[in-house]
Structures are given as C-alpha cells and as structure tokens.
Design a protein that fits this description.
This protein has 611 residues and is an alpha+beta fold. The protein contains eight helices and 31 strands. The strands form seven sheets. It has a seven-stranded mixed β-sheet with strand order 7-13-9-10-11-12-8, with helices on one face. A six-stranded antiparallel β-sheet has the order 14-3-4-6-1-15, with no helix packed on it.
Length: 611
C-alpha cells in the first residue's frame, strides 16, 4: 500500500531519521509508490541528501550556540559575547616578588647609588631559570659602605618593545600572546624625528574621557592577541597620521615562576667592585594565564550587573575575580552580618592560588588599587586572612578479595586518590562543605571489590601563638563539638612551653565546659596545672582560652584537634574546610565474610566509628 505522506518531516536532525523521512516523502509520490529504495541507485542520492541536511543542521546548531554566551565554546566567541556586556577578560599576569636589595661597596661610595630600571634579577624554579626586572630605578642614599633599598618589586617576563607609525584606518596589534596588560606602556611621538613622548594611559570605560584625554583601549582578538584603539577626537585624543606609537610590555611565563624565593642580581654593578645581595620579602606569586573561558562566562554577566561599582557582595566578588588573578576563592560579607556586627565596613577574605594567605602588599593592592573609587565612600573594605579547618580522616576500607585482582596497597592508593579528588572538587573554597556520606559513597564506588568503609573525622586547626605575653585565644569552629559530659579528650593540643617551666605542657577539655592546662608526669599520669584556663561551648563550637603565656612550642605548628559532633563539617566567613593530606590514614582489610563464610566473622577486624 502506497504511503500518503506528501510532506517532508523536518523535525529530525539525525542522519538515519532524515533519510527515513526522505524515503517516506518519496513513497508518497505516485512516481515512486512501489519503488525499492534499499537496492537502487536512488539510495545513494538519498544518502547524499541526508548527509547534506545533517551537516547543515550540525553547522547551524554550532553557529547558533556560538551566538550566546552560555552555549559558546570557542574562546573568540565567548570574548566577543563578553564585549557586548562591556566586559574585558583578564590578560595573563606576570609573577611578582618583593625583595630587599643590599649594595656593599669596597670603600665609602657616592651620595646616591642607583640600579637602573629593567635590570635583570634571575631565579631558578624546577631547574629552569627565569628573569625578573625592576620596572623602576632602585636608589639608595649615602655616602656609605652599605646601601639598602627595601620592598623592591620585581616583575617576571620577557620585556619587549614594538613601534607603529599611525596611518589612516591602521590597526595596532600587540604581536605576542600572554601579554600582561598591567605592564603595558604606550607612548606617542609626533613623528619619528621627535624626541618628546606623550604617555597614554589604558582605560576600561568612557567616563571622564574628553577630546584631549590621552587614553587608549584594548580588546582581545584572534589567537589571544590584543589590539589597541585610540580616541576619535570626541572621546579621547585623536592621533594624527605620521605619529609614532611606542609600545613596551612584558610577556608572562604564566604560573611557572610562582614560589621563587632565591634571587641573584645579574646586571652591571652599580659601583665598581661592589656586591649586590638580594633578600626575599615576599616570594614570587601572581603569575597566571589569560582568563579562562569558564571564568569569562561566570564573571561577564556579574560584571555587567555590577556596572563597575562595588555595592553588593557579588559586586565585590566580581571585581576581585576579574582584576586579581591570584584569587582562588573569595568571600565577602557586610559588617552588619559580622559577629559581632561592625557597621560601615565590608569584610573580604581571599584565598590565593599559590599560598595560604595574601601578602600585605596584595591586601593593599585590593583595597587601594582594585576597589578604589568603586566602593561606597562611607564603607571601608577590610581584607582578612583565611582560616583553615583541616579535616583529618582515618579511613578503613573492607574489600572482597575474590572480587578484585588488586592488592591491599593498590586499593589504599585508589582510595587516597578518590579522597584527594573530592577535596579538590568539593572543598578548598569558602563555600565548601564536607559531606561525610558523599565521600563514603565515593570511596565505596572507587573499586568494585570494596564492600564498605569506616571513615572517622577529626578537625585540626592551627593557632598562631603569641610568645612571651599572657594572651587570649578565641576559636570559633562553627561546628558543634562532640561530648558525653566526661573527660575523653574531645579537644586536645600539641605541646607547648609556658612561662616558669621547662616541661612540655598541653591543653584539653574536661567534658563539662572547661579547658585545662596539664603536663605528663614521670609515671605517665596527667598532672593538671590549671583546670579552668578556658571555656568550651560545645553546642556553638566556641573555645575560649585565657591568660595562656607561651614561651615556645614543641612542634613545628601549634595545633588544636577537635572531635566534631557531626561528621559533616561546614565553614563560614573566613573559614575554608579542606582535607589534611598529611593527616590522612587509609587501611584496606580483606573481608572474608563478604563471601558468605560464617566462620570468618570470628576474626572480623572491627574499627570504631568515633575518632
């Protein structure tokens, strides 16, 4: 019976469905009502038509996706869509370091000693040498034998210069990728014979730009390059044909030099025979690649909503993420939400990528450079250091040896990698929450032979001791602390030395709300020196230690360990929950009961469910 289909169904995009629709259409025509399409030459033509339709549909789908920020995949498309929102993606960043420079002369030197700008300082990271430069001259006054220059900023990268002559409808493209736009300097001469330069500054908006303002704008084009555009005589000063544009900049080595701590001066001695020593103040940090596609998609809409001003907490986050490449995670809250409330302030906490906290210089840059003229005048931003809730895990894994070919050691390694991945994916940020059941499920699924796991949780918190002074330490863990009303060491510290004693002392709780100071006697007994040196609010997770006079500590760090009431660990404000990888214990045990051996239960290795 002939098909009655007189129209082609255009709702399908799959090749086989398109071909079937074409067949149905042809069968509906009287000329092909009894035609065998499978064994005929017409089948080849149908394949061609179906392929052509399929390719066009695929191309159109991809092209349309590239028109929207959320669905675009190509970087050029994402950058182009971000431009429509007035968003300029962050460029690569050069690594910077702060150092003190000491110049030692053989004899008393001149009144002023200067190391010229762009003098090289070298360092080695992972066997590769990188060159840093001082972007400004380094001067020290004398006369003296030793000259000191403190807090000198060094910038890593390859220093390059490029020149353009202005023409009608000319384009001015920086011919290198991974350029740090923060190091970009643009100067303009009237012509190639002129000895005078006018400096133009980079602008990111049209505000305050009139016909005489010497500004330029940058935009990212293909292959990660940047193009400079200048004013038209209405918004920004217009360049004349024949002007010469001089561009100098640094090309970044991205994050490879981060962490460098040892520098050597590799330039000409500022004084004949003098030696130049370099002492680290802040290690190299901040080196990074251009803003990623995912970051642009996230930040562009928020930057547009912020309109280059910092009012809401999301505004602050958007500006910091966009202009401070070292930010890994950012938390912002108003003073009215602080504990206790502090009106007229905005608190900012930034976790950097290559360190545990920001340097004082980085904090100053955020407040005085990035946020200046953007936040409300009456609101004072304050940058705080993050605090880390280090989660120590003791994981015992039971596995069926008949269901896996892996050894216990191999299973332990798989479980460790699973825990590390969970730490990277779900924690490490201010919004991270350690969910015990989720991790437990991931561990069970990490290897088919695993039948169960028993994972216990302990919170470790490092405390910065204040030496040789009677000090108070208030720790707000946020998470309720486990207690049974008995002294069971639910809270305990590493060793410390206190004033008037050369014996190692410790702190713990008595189970009823008091912190105690004690030491271990000759018979391993606990001798309590002060039974009420502090208090504990178990429900709120607050520990208050008073009048603790520390002279030194017995370990590398002064740490307090806490058994949480719940195995889910949350964080708030400045806190970041993360797994303490140096305190992770994984043990794999063969479980013969999984094979139905009733006798195996007699030798089952039980583990406690409490830390």
């Amino acid at each position: 019976m002939a098909s009655t289909n007189k129209k082609i169904n255009v709702t399908e995009l799959d090749f086989d469905a398109i071909k079937a629709n074409l067949k149905e259409f042809l069968k509906g025509q009287s000329e092909f009502s009894d035609y065998d399409f499978e064994g005929s030459g017409l089948a080849v033509l149908l394949d061609v038509l179906a392929y052509n339709t399929h390719y066009n549909a695929l191309y159109d789908n991809l092209a349309i996706n590239e028109l929207f920020l959320d669905s675009a995949i190509k970087r050029n498309s994402v950058v182009s869509r971000a431009k429509e929102l007035g968003y300029v993606p962050r460029s690569a960043r050069c690594s910077t370091a702060q150092v003190n420079v000491q110049i030692t002369s053989v004899t008393e030197g001149p009144s002023v000693v200067t190391i010229p700008a762009l003098s090289p300082f070298t360092t080695t990271v992972d066997g590769k040498t990188y060159t840093f430069y001082n972007r400004e001259p380094i001067s020290s006054t004398g006369p003296a034998v030793v000259y000191n220059a403190n807090n000198v900023t060094l910038t890593e990268g390859q220093y390059l210069t490029y020149r353009y002559t202005v023409t009608e409808n000319g384009r001015y493209i920086i011919p290198n990728s991974n350029v740090d736009l923060n190091t970009l300097r643009v100067r303009v001469q009237e012509n190639s014979q002129s000895s005078e330069f006018n400096t133009f500054t980079r602008s990111t908006s049209l505000v305050d730009a009139d016909s005489t303002t010497r500004v330029f704008w940058t935009k990212e084009i293909d292959d990660g390059l940047y193009e400079l555009t200048f004013g038209d005589g209405v918004l920004g000063q217009k360049l004349d044909v024949g002007n010469v544009i001089s561009i100098d900049y640094f090309v970044s080595s991205l994050d490879a030099p981060n962490g460098a701590r040892v520098f050597q001066y590799s330039g000409q001695p500022p004084i004949d025979g003098a030696t130049t020593s370099v002492y680290i103040v802040n290690p190299a940090s901040g080196g990074d690649g251009p803003e990623s596609v995912e970051s642009i998609k996230f930040n562009a809409p928020r930057s547009y909503a912020a309109q280059n001003r910092a009012v809401t907490t999301d505004d602050y986050k958007s500006i910091i993420y966009n202009q401070f490449s070292e930010a890994r995670s950012v938390a912002v809250w108003g003073g009215e939400d602080n504990n206790p409330p502090t009106y007229g302030k905005t608190y900012i906490c930034v976790r950097p990528k290559s360190a545990t906290k920001l340097t004082n210089q980085q904090k100053s840059d955020i407040v005085n450079t990035i946020l200046t003229n953007k936040n409300v005048v009456s609101v004072i931003p304050e940058v705080l250091d993050p605090e880390y809730l280090n989660i120590a895990l003791n994981c015992t894994v039971y596995y069926n040896p008949r269901e896996t070919i892996r050894s216990a050691a191999e299973i332990e390694d798989i479980v460790r990698q699973t825990i590390f991945k969970y730490d990277d994916d779900d924690l490490q940020g201010f919004d991270g929450v350690f969910r015990h059941s989720k991790l437990s499920r991931l561990i069970d699924m990490s290897e088919k032979g695993i039948v169960s796991n028993n994972t216990t949780v302990l919170i470790r918190r490092k405390i910065a001791p204040r030496y040789n002074v009677s000090a108070q330490y208030i720790l707000n863990i946020i998470n309720p602390i486990y207690t049974t009303g008995l002294a069971q060491n639910n809270i305990y510290t590493t060793g410390l030395f206190v004033a008037g004693s050369d014996i190692i002392h410790y702190l713990d709780d008595d189970g009823v709300g008091n912190m105690r100071l004690y030491y271990i006697g000759s018979s391993a007994e606990k001798i309590v020196v002060n039974p009420t040196i502090g208090t504990v609010d178990y429900a709120k997770g607050i520990i208050n230690i008073k009048n603790l006079h520390i002279t030194s500590i017995a370990d590398i760090d002064f740490e307090i360990s806490i058994r949480p009431s719940s195995y889910d660990v949350v964080s708030a404000y400045t806190q970041i929950a993360q797994i303490a990888r140096d305190h992770l214990t994984v043990t794999a045990i063969a479980d013969e009961t999984a094979n139905g051996d009733l006798r195996a239960g007699r030798n089952y290795q039980h583990t406690t469910s409490r830390s």
